[in-house]
Write a structure and sequence with these properties.
The complex is a heterodimer of chains A (304) and B (453). Chain A is mainly α. Chain A contains 13 helices and two strands. Chain A starts with a helix and ends in a 10-residue tail after the last helix. The relative contact order of chain B is 0.15. Classes of the chains: A mainly alpha (304), B alpha/beta (453). The interface between A and B is medium-sized, with 29 and 32 residues.
């Protein structure tokens, strides 16, 4: 009986692996292979065009001891992630809750709000953003209407990062759609019961909606964080593509790109890439480790 | 119905797979893969030398739409003369061009012919450029080209670069602003003190107008040459200046900026001098800037204000400006059709029809014959350019200067230099501190990029 079951399972597995095969080939050939290649390159001096020469951990040593731009770009990227991820999620949740009120033509709204997510990463939108936040752009015209002289958002090193953060917030669509699905899963009787007991709207939100949504928040948080760490296009297009002005758009990935493809330091860039992988991996691990304290899976027997 | 769809999908997948494997068995038949109008996959490349076989060449350049239009016109002309050669042109704006080129070179998919500027050194030392020497006198006729230009393209003993035009940098002047301010136009022979004074004066007389762009970076080599130094000493493979040689240059700009004559750093970021379509000289908000002479026409075509050019203010040893190659063509070392590459380059520089179409967009033609041809049918703007460049040529007879190659690691160096200027402009660092950091950074970049010889 047991053996038969095991056989059945292994047959099952075989079919599953067969179906997984295309992905596995892709993963090994297109992801794992190049990754190992880059690990090797990160231990070499490689100028893109001549063969790499082995220098051991020298790239890493240089990154940590001599490279001010590295720490600057890391700091900027952290700033960006810690600003944009929470703001985007809060915004997405607010819109999702507004849409969850049972309004008519929900499909249209959902689509309309989702579109920025599809477009947000594109070069075209980044160019539009440039125009809107330009010194004589729409935002400053609007501010001028109220008698405020706005700064030149995209050309002053102090402000440009916020321009890019707003662009990231504006791409709230995909998080919103997932929140919306999550909100629909919250059983209505919980709210009814709370109402009976005299809980206010705010109380309901913090005591019911938020805890019930934690798995969805967890998912969105991880996806947003990983995405935000890898921000490139807005920095490249809204900034000058060289990290300027004053390294204010020198995000980590942009720095990596410049080192690799503009400065002929591909080995160095590969080392940077591996550090980025470790950083993102580290943050994801922290989120997973802490998740058991704050993520509530309603379907498990004992509340965890 | 569903079954049929599945069949169609399967067939498509199968054809795709076979097409791919077909591609690998004849490498080079389809290089790049980014072009929609590529040769049919699977055709094997013709043996070199057979005249009637179809040859496909890719050429890549940077520039604006106007340059793309005229370049494509010339390519069409070339194809009409050589029906067996098909040319695919690719272009991109100057920003991003070299990143794209580097990526393609790294993956072995670069165009057969591509344009390079003063950064040709960076590529010549990496053995990716085709040696054109064997074709000189046959496919490639350089007999009418200036000797200095041929020398310019000869690096490490090989001819790897053929100049496509010559220019000289100079000060562009918006004449209308000077008229409005009631000030006389500057003239050749002025010095940097004059430059600062005029910049500040015009800015104080006209509202919302600045005297000059800050060209600390673009003019650095010129300034150094005016004082007997240079950025990059190619002969000795070392930096051509020391920290002390450059401090005054940074100070000059900071002091003039204090006087209100220089474009603010914010405006310079959003309206860079190098981007013709955004240039404040064109929009009439800045009276002066430093541009290469071949860019004057592009500037003038965007504005009603009359523009002109005068020589760069003089330093101790003269103007420091040379009439030199602005950019040129190089072949890819791994090209399968080196002979055709030489033919195409030859067409670009020698063909009179091509010269007429190209005009001075990339600089004054490099062959005497085409120069004479263009001088016959010149307009007002071109006349200014010819006047200007001949004045520069004349001046270098008595005050010669080295031509300017970019130093190895030029992109990284330029980024660093611009950042240093901004650090001063936005008040993050004192001039002394910024220059110290700039110089140590320059030494680091130079050492990590220079070729051991």
């Amino acid at each position: 009986m047991r053996a038969a079951k095991r056989l059945k399972i292994s047959q099952h597995n075989r079919t599953a692996y067969l179906f997984l095969l295309p992905w596995l080939i892709g993963f090994l050939g297109l992801t794992a292979g190049p990754m190992l290649g880059s690990l090797y390159l990160s231990l070499t001096k490689f100028d893109l065009l001549s063969p790499p020469t082995w220098i051991g951990l020298d790239n890493y040593r240089q990154i940590f001891t001599e490279d001010n731009t590295f720490s600057g770009s890391l700091w900027l990227t952290f700033t960006y992630v810690f600003l944009s991820v929470p703001l985007r999620l809060i915004f997405a949740l607010l819109v999702a809750m507004a849409l969850n009120k049972g309004i008519r033509a929900l499909g249209i709204y959902r689509t309309v709000y989702y579109i920025p997510s599809l477009l947000g990463g594109s070069v075209a939108i980044a160019i539009v953003w440039r125009q809107i936040f330009d010194g004589e752009g729409a935002v400053n015209k609007l501010l001028g209407f109220f008698g405020i002289t706005g700064p030149s958002w995209i050309s002053h090193p102090d402000y440009i990062v916020y321009t890019i953060v707003t662009l990231s917030i504006w791409q709230f669509g995909s998080a919103m759609v997932i929140f919306l699905a999550g909100l629909k899963q919250v059983p209505g009787d919980l709210y009814e019961a709370a109402q009976m007991d005299g809980a206010g709207k705010i109380g309901q939100f913090f005591k019911i909606t938020l805890p019930m949504l934690t798995p969805v928040i967890f998912f969105n948080l991880i996806m947003s964080m990983i995405n935000s760490f890898q921000v490139f296009t807005p920095a490249f297009v809204i900034g000058d593509g060289r990290g300027g002005p004053l390294d204010a758009t020198m995000f980590y990935t942009l720095y990596l790109y410049l080192q690799g493809f503009s400065y002929f330091n591909m080995g160095y860039a590969a080392a940077l890439a591996w550090l980025m992988l470790l950083i993102i991996g580290g943050f994801t691990a922290i989120l997973f480790l802490t998740s058991k304290f704050w993520v509530f899976y309603g379907d498990s027997k004992d509340g965890r | 119905m569903k079954k049929q769809m599945l069949m169609v999908a399967l067939i498509m997948v199968l054809t795709f797979v076979t097409a791919c494997s077909g591609g690998t068995s004849s490498p080079g038949a389809s290089n790049g893969g980014t072009n929609s109008n590529e040769a049919q996959g699977g055709t094997t490349s013709p043996p070199a030398g057979s005249e009637d076989a179809e040859v496909e060449l890719r050429i890549m350049w940077w520039g604006d739409q106007k340059r793309a239009d005229i370049t494509n016109e010339v390519l069409k002309l070339f194809q009409e003369e050589h029906p067996n050669i098909r040319i695919i042109g690719e272009f991109s704006p100057a920003t991003g061009y070299f990143d794209k080129l580097n990526t393609q070179l790294a993956s072995g998919t670069a165009a057969d012919v591509f344009f390079l500027g003063g950064n040709v050194v960076d590529y010549a030392t990496k053995d990716v450029l085709l040696d054109l020497e064997p074709y000189v006198g046959n496919e490639l006729d350089l007999s009418d080209m200036d000797e200095a230009m041929i020398e310019y393209g000869t690096l490490g003993g090989n001819l790897v670069h053929v100049s496509a035009g010559a220019n000289a940098r100079g000060i562009v002047i918006n004449e209308r602003l000077f008229e409005e301010a009631g000030m006389p136009l500057p003239e050749d022979g002025w010095n940097w003190e004059d430059y600062a004074r005029i910049s500040n004066e015009i800015a104080s007389k006209l509202d919302g107008v600045y005297g000059s762009y800050n060209f600390t970076v673009e003019g650095m080599d010129i300034y150094l040459k005016q004082n007997g130094k240079q950025l990059y000493d190619m002969e000795n493979n070392q930096l051509g200046f020391e920290e002390a040689d450059i401090v005054d240059w940074f100070n000059f700009w900071e002091e003039t900026a204090q006087g209100g004559g220089i474009v603010t750093p914010e405006l310079a970021v959003s309206h860079p001098q190098g981007d013709t379509s955004k240039s404040l000289v064109v929009t009439g908000q800045v009276a002066m800037g430093l541009i290469p002479s071949n860019q004057l026409a592009a500037h003038q075509s965007l504005t009603e204000d009359k523009l002109t050019m005068v020589q760069v203010p003089r330093g101790e040893k003269g103007t420091g400006v040379v009439f030199e190659s602005s950019q040129g063509l190089s072949g890819y070392a791994k090209t399968e059709h080196p002979k055709e590459v030489a033919m195409l380059i030859n067409f670009f520089i020698n063909d009179p029809e091509a010269a007429k179409i190209l005009g001075n967009d990339r600089g004054v033609p490099v062959t005497a014959q085409n120069r004479a041809l263009l001088e016959q049918e010149t307009d007002e703007v071109q006349q200014i350019v010819y006047d200007y460049t001949s004045r520069v040529s004349e001046a270098t007879k008595t005050e010669p200067f080295n031509v300017s190659y970019n130093m190895p690691g030029n992109t990284e160096f330029t980024t660093l230099a611009e950042k240093s200027v901004q650090e001063i402009g936005f008040g993050r660092k004192s001039v002394e501190q910024a220059v110290t950091d700039f110089y140590s950074g320059t030494v680091r970049i130079f050492n990590s990029n220079k070729q051991e010889s």
